[in-house]
Amino acid sequence: MGRAFEFRKGRKMKRWSAMAKAFTRIGKDIVMAVKEGGPNPEANSRLRAVIQNAKAANMPKDNVERAIKKATDKDTANYKEVLFEGYAPHGIALLIETATDNNNRTVANVRSYFNKCNGTMGTQGSVEFMFDHTCNFRIPKGEIDPEELELELIDFGAEEVFEDEDGILIYAPFGSFGTIQKELENRKMEILSSGFERIPQITKKLTEAEMADVEKLIEKMEEDDDVMNVYHTMEEN
């Protein structure tokens, strides 16, 4: 198995474990998708992907429809995706993905978390190069052979295909998202969920005490409503 498999196996999806947080994230994703490509899922591939993720998170259909309707209101603020970079204690690189309607607020909050937990906020590009930006798709297992599917999807950008307890996962570079989404839809394969992740190229092993220092900062970041994802280079058990 490759790095995507190890990353998926080891990562603690704390933000998605809380349903309210998941719904908040999906609501923002819907607003950004609708503002970008309109409210019709048939004509908006990004919105189709968000609706699939809403289903996977058991978000009620009524909630999704209300969010789409609200997003079409010209008075609804749009969210801007902003990436923050820096270092946690003990030399652990952090990438923080945010979706915000008030950049000044988000910048101030993220900087305060770094300062309170002995971290250092970095400049643009200071740690982003340490992570591979990937996209992923989850489809049902069915009768599909992951190895055969991987060979078939290589030409569309897929780099890693593997099975876990919830289905089959397909990983590819960030830029291959639209191509693979279209191919899966052409094959009439059900897409259970899809998304983007940043996989660290190398990780660093810490002691339990050092891990606690880093986790304290990550938890503060994740508690912020503007924060969508936090990625790090700490080796996880």
Looking at how many chains there are and whether they match, the oligomeric state comes to: single chain
Can you list the strand order of the major beta sheet?
A: 3-1-2-8
- Number of distinct helices: 9
Q: What's the total number of strands? A: 8
The SSE order reads: HHHHHEEHEEHEEHEHE
**Roughly how many Å apart are the termini?**
17 Å
Q: Residue-averaged pLDDT, rounded? A: 91
Describe the biggest sheet?
4 strands, antiparallel
Proportion of beta-strand residues: 15-25%
Helical fraction equals 40-55%
Q: Per the principal axes of the C-alpha atoms, what is the gross shape?
A: globular
Summing up helix and strand content along with how strands pair, one would put the structural category as alpha+beta
What is the C-alpha radius of gyration, as a whole number of Å?
A: 18 Å
Low-confidence runs of at least 5 consecutive residues? 12-17
Family: Belongs to the TACO1 family.
Subcellular location: Cytoplasm
Keywords: Cytoplasm, DNA-binding, Transcription, Transcription regulation
Domain TACO1/YebC-like second and third: 79-234
Question: How would you describe what is shown here?
Answer:
There is one protein chain. With 237 residues, the chain is α+β, with helices and mostly antiparallel strands. The protein contains 9 helices and 8 strands. The chain has helices spanning 3-10, 14-17, 19-37, 45-56, 61-71, 103-116, 146-153, 177-186, 208-223, and strands at 80-88, 92-100, 120-121, 131-139, 160-164, 167-173, 193-200, 227-232. A 4-stranded antiparallel beta sheet has the order 3-1-2-8. Strands 5-6-4-7 form a 4-stranded antiparallel beta sheet, with helices on both faces. Helix 3 packs across helix 5. The radius of gyration is 18 Å and the shape is globular. 32% of the residues are buried.
